[in-house]
Amino acid sequence: EEIWIPKHVSDLDKCGHVVVKYEPTEDPKHPGFGDKDYISRRAELNAIARDWKFGDSMPDIQYLPEEHETWRIAYSKLKELRPSHTCAEYCKNIKQMEDIGLITADKIPSLQAIDKYLRAKTGFQLRPCGGLLSARDFLASLAFRVFQTTLYLRHHSKPNHCPEPDLIHEILGHTPMFADPVVAEFSQEVGLLSIGASDEQIERLATLYWFIIEFGLCEENGKLKAIGAGLISAFGELQHAISDTPEHAPFDPYKTAIQKYEDSDYQPLYFVAKSMSDAMEKLRKYALDFDRSAINVYNPFSQTISQL
Ligand code: H2B
Ligand code: FE
């Protein structure tokens, strides 16, 4: 049967399907499990995401003092590891965001300001979402250079860890990387391949995305560094990933796309790209072999996708 596809960026209003997986209401291992105040705050913020429509500006949320505090703790800890553990693109882009006062330790950054910054840098824009999205919906938004961001924060008892995407992961892990032109291009190209793809193809693209944009490493002057947002925003796994404990294999889309991954614990295996540009080149070769009934082309002026 026909697979529905978003054609205009406003169609992403229909691409917000949440996968209920590691939520505090369902998962006893979630640090917020059983905390009524935390669960209701999360629901309140997710309701803002649910009601948001294309054309609205990013919500201006009054975060609570304890939420700013959780941000401060996570931010400060991660900053210590930054020079030794994260890639040059990340260091450069987050520093630029800090230099202009967009990202500071004392408070959660303004989502409106981050959105404006990304639009000017790479054309990426933000829209709010209510949790872990289906891979199809999440990847579709990347085709339009839209990043769907959660609004809630991790539980204050575990500032350095969260089993689901949260605002600290999105802002500290992803947004500096989406400010990089090659990361932006890579993400959009994976997104474009996902439009109209079969479930099995979506699974492969989600796996590729996972192993580069979430948990990817690269090699810089003989040392392993993180490119992936899931690592950059997680104090424990960031140290684990570049240590000798896990396995490391060279990034190769043909192998990476079919590798099983771990989503409830540290990865036993990470893929290492020579650089983001090298990963991009390899992705483009892989895309030529990707079985498609149409080629999806994005028009940035009308923000539409057409199929050739
Ligand atoms: N949803 C949200 N909200 N944030 C993500 O980073 C995310 C997602 N990543 N859904 C997706 C899944 C990714 O792991 C791949 C595409 O499945
Ligand atoms: Fe993520």
Taking the alpha carbons of the first and last residues, their distance comes to 20 Å
Helix/strand structural class = alpha/beta
Number of helical regions: 12
Radius of gyration: 18 Å
Shape, per Cα inertia axes:
globular
Strand order across the biggest sheet?
4-3-6-5
Bound molecules: ligand H2B, fe (iii) ion
* Low-pLDDT runs: none
Characterize the structure shown.
With 308 residues, the protein is an alpha/beta fold. 45% of the residues lie in helices and 11% in strands. The protein is built from twelve helices and eight strands. The protein has a four-stranded mixed β-sheet. Strands 1-2 form a two-stranded parallel sheet. β5, α11 and β6 (269-273) form a beta-alpha-beta unit. α3 (88-99) packs across α6 (167-178), α7 packs antiparallel against α8 and α7 (181-194) packs parallel to α12 (276-288). The protein is globular. The mean pLDDT is 95. Fe (iii) ion is lined by residues 165, 169, 174, 214, 229-230. Ligand H2B binds at residues 129, 132-133, 135, 138-139, 148, 150, 165, 206, 209-210, 214.
